[in-house]
Amino acid sequence: MAERERALAPPYGGVFVARTTVMAPDDVQRAVWRMAHEIIERNHGTDGLALVGLQTGGVWIAGRLNETIQTVSGVDVPTGTLDVAFYRDDIGLRPVLPEAATDIPFDLSGQTVVLIDDVLFTGRTVRAALNALADYGRARAVQLAVMVDRGHRELPIRPDYVGKNLPTRRDEMVDVSEAGVVLGDMVKK
Amino acid sequence: MKAATDLPPVGRHAGQPARRHLLSVADLGADGIEEVLRVTDSFVEVSGRAIPKVPALRGKTVVSLFFEDSTRTRLSFETAARRLSADVMTFSAASSSVNKGESLRDTVETIEAMGIDGVVVRHAGSGVPWQVARWLRQAAVINGGDGWHEHPTQALLDCYTITRMLAGAPAHEGGPGSLAGVRIAIVGDIRHSRVARSDVLAFSALGAHVTLVAPPTLLPPSLAGWPVEVSHDLDAVLPTLDVVYLLRLQQERMREALLPSLREYTATYGLTSTRARLLPDDALIMHPGPVNRGVEIAAEVADQPSSVITRQVANGVAVRMAVLYLLLGSGVDLAA
Amino acid sequence: MPPEPSRPDPALRRQRPATTSRQHTGVRRRPPTVLIHGGTLVDPTGTRPGDVLIQDGVIVSAGNRVESAPAGTVVLDAGGCVVAPGLVDLHTHLREPGREEAETVETGSRAAALGGYTAVVAMPNTEPAIDSAAVVRQVLELGRDALCDVAVAGSITVGREGTRLAPLAEMAALGVKLFTDDGSGVQDARLMRRALEYASSLGVTLAQHCEDSSLAAGGHMHEGEWSSRLGIPGQPAEAEELMVMRDLALCRLTGTPVHFLHLSTARSVAMVRGAKASGLPVTAEATPHHLCLTDACVAGYDTVFKVNPPLRSAEDAAAIRAGLADGTIDAIATDHAPHAKEAKEAPFDQAPPGMIGLETALGVALSELDLPIERVVALLSWKPAAIAGLAEHGRPITAGIPANLCVIDPEMEWTVDPARMASRSRNTPFAGRTLRGRVRHTVLAGEPVVVNGQAQR
Predict the structure, then answer these.
(1) CATH superfamily of B152-313
(2) What residue in C sits closest to B26 (Cα-Cα)?
(3) Which residue in B222, B253, B256, B258 has the most chain C C-beta atoms within 10 A of its own C-beta, making it the best mutation to test that interface?
(4) Cys bridge to B2: B26, B29, C303, C334, which one at CB 3.0-4.6 A?
(5) Which residues of C fall within a CB distance of 8 Å from B223?
């Protein structure tokens, strides 16, 4: 989770205090490898495949998946980034700032797009991402890959590829990076 | 140069929840300006799409309350609001009850009663957006230009244009939102210019070095507290610049005995082709429009590659999208 | 609903004997016997403890403690208070006739009484202007039942248009002592010279609103740092100073007294100081707002701070205070200028200039001037009374003179609340300010028109 977004999440201006390491760096690396293989397997190769990482937490994972898929299949799958701030339906409930510009330098029409994010929680970001994606073209299919599925869904959305299923309390925070996955709490400064 | 006064800040009276307005570009501070510029990047991307529209302000209503004709600014704001999926209402003084003796406050309160989220206010009288902000209970006020005073979104789009054009240029010392070390001259009718006042505040907040170049009659009576230098010699200033910003000269200034003639103005303060050659090669030429070709700027200079006048217009929509989004959509208090 | 300013109960209406400005009045009921008890008397003769006993509108004893008063005597408690001659405002816009939505003689005089005033000079920029005997009579008639004496200033030129001389003698015959085109200055030097010459035989004073209109034209605030920042067209201090300079020259030329209205700049004060030292017959006034507010107040574009002359710099305000302290400025005058709410809810450059001041002048003067109360009362009472030529006001508190008095609690702190003001308008620049010093009672020709801070009718 980006530092800015964290500062803007309730309790606003809080700091993340780590409690438990859930995945070590090696675990994250292995999960990326597994998901890359699953993506190739499910789609019978890389033809018509595109990766789109959600700003900002999904962007690095998309990059790793792209590298891994390239290593495995020798194909550089088109990879972009997507910011969904303008598509969220929880405006007014919490501050939503664009993280970085959307960058999808290829045509989505007819592609199978794998949306990639770090944590799947309520599903609202993914819903916003599906709406945003529609503005860039009509994908043949959209699949979802996440490093952590922490439950508490509020929408009928499920991931196709999961790094780890992680039961959590609603008020806990999950921090995902290449250095691992950490469960913790937001503490007011 | 932010107004220091023992009065409570306008629109933020003690005890009231802070409402979000954009009245003066000085309210943003350097951080706020940089935030707007950063968000503008995202809207430049949106504007480049086949369907340049996002649902961010779906269900919100934005009113453009223009007591002074300015088709360019009004269209820019309304385009921005529509690209954010807001509903847009247009109120122009010419077709309204303002001419039927209704007071400004009545007009404003009537419009708010229709249930609106944001008002873009343009008025020939300085300070009207401040008054409107005091009278409104809910809606956010965006200053679309007030009298001679301020035009904050113009300053923001100017900052955006300069920072993004100069990115990577040797003169550019700071980060993507900084104008540190950038030398800018604003040339022309500073006295009557809301653009100049907002630009001075914004450029200097971002660290630029600002020089005002004008005949003494077209400078404000006092420049105490303005973070600027003043020159009456455009030829001497031009070679030192990264940006020359020309202001529109209104014809009526001649009638007010502020200038003897247009010809004399052009000869001393106009950016003629000859004079434009004094500029460094990579210097930008800017103008808030509409351009008086042949008066403050020669036609061929306005059209040369270093002139970024049309880019300013294009960036205007994205900057105004950013401002509308930040005030009405993001839940972020810009001035916090 | 804010509490209403005290309303007159017709059953309690008391009639009063004629005073200076109400010579046409008919038969009046006798005012009650009044005892002002326990205060300190402050008047041109000095300061001393004492009670004041009033019968039939006239002071019958002053200075001694009165232990027993006749039955039925109205006793006004003045414990801890200063008992002074009633205040006199040289500069009140009562707006009647013509602008009754902003103020009437009734509401304006009630505001005056609450502010401690027993007489006000009504400015002639009404609609129609007070430029003839007929209009003078009309305003005097309106002032007959007012809560303070209403003296009238006539205009110098017909319709205040600055082109033809108004019938000064005709108006002077009705008791008009002060003439002015206030709202604007007489621009034509030749016409002003003629007016001064003509007036010299009438025993009247011409008062000037000093503003060179060509230099001030289009200006909506003081020209300077703040107007430059705020993008509001300014009027330079020199617009006032040019006319002060000119009228000092014309005063020298004609020998006729000139009174300078609402001086607002440091150099104006300095010029008047010099003129007085050289023996010219000039007097000057300043307003409560010019002595403590500055052009920085305009920063929020609140039109309540729009006034003419405009609020000046802090240095100018300091010079006004110094001028009041050293006697260069003879009087504090309110320039009470009511405007209806709708009129002030306009863009700054379209709103009319003016502030109300009758109810706050004393409090502002006591709070903001570093002067003993005796000096402050002099600036508000007998010195302006002398300039206005009001023989029944500002007199020493002694037996035999008309009982026009006010009782001031100099320590009372109060917060200015526009909603509670008696004026019909709300445009006070002091809203929310805490002032020290307030009027407790006002006695007009023996009638207690304000008792314990409440208007009695």
Answers:
(1) Aspartate/ornithine carbamoyltransferase (3.40.50.1370)
(2) C229
(3) B222
(4) B26
(5) 228
Q: Please tell me which of the candidates C228, C231, C342 has its beta carbon nearest to residue B223.
A: C228
Question: How many domains does chain A fold into?
Answer: 1
User: Is residue C185 domain-shared with residue C121, that is, in the same domain?
Assistant: yes
B300 three-state secondary structure: helix
Task: Give yes or no: residues C235 and C147 share one domain.
Answer: yes
The CATH number of the domain holding residue C248 is 3.20.20.140
Q: Hey, what are A87's tokens?
A: 């598509």
Q: What distance lies between CA B206 and its chain's CA centroid?
A: 15
Among A86, A92, A103, whose Cβ lies nearest the Cβ of B54?
A: A86
From residue B117, give the alpha-carbon distance in Å to each of A88, B75, B85, B132: 18, 18, 13, 14
The 10s digit of each residue's pLDDT in B110-148 is 899 999 999 999 999 999 999 999 999 889 999 999 999
Two structure tokens written together for B82: 């529509």
Q: Does B227 touch chain C (CB under 8 A)?
A: no
C342/B103 Cβ within 8 A: yes
Interface touch B221/C232, C-beta < 8 Å: no
Per residue in C380-432, pLDDT (tens digit) is 999 999 999 999 999 999 999 999 999 999 999 999 999 999 999 999 999 99
pLDDT at B333: 57
Is residue C371 a contact partner of residue C325, using CB atoms and an 8 Å limit?
A: yes
Q: C105 and C252, same structural domain?
A: yes
What range defines the domain where residue C450 resides?
A: 10-83+399-455
Q: Do C206 and C243 fall within a single domain?
A: yes
For C296, how many CA atoms within 13 A lie in the half-sphere containing its CB? 16
Question: Would you say the CATH fold of B152-313 matches that of B25-150+315-329?
Answer: yes
- Cβ distance B140 to B118 under 8 Å? yes
* Predicted TM-score of the model (pTM): 0.89
CB-based contact B147 C350, cutoff 8 Å: no
Q: What interface predicted TM-score (ipTM) does this complex get? A: 0.90
List, by residue number, the catalytic residues of C. Answer: 335
pLDDT in tens, B234-249: 999 999 999 999 999 9
Q: How close is the nearest chain C Cα to the Cα of B106, in Å? A: 9
Domain assignment present for A180: no
Query: In DSSP terms, which residues pair with C36 in a beta bridge?
Result: C52, C76
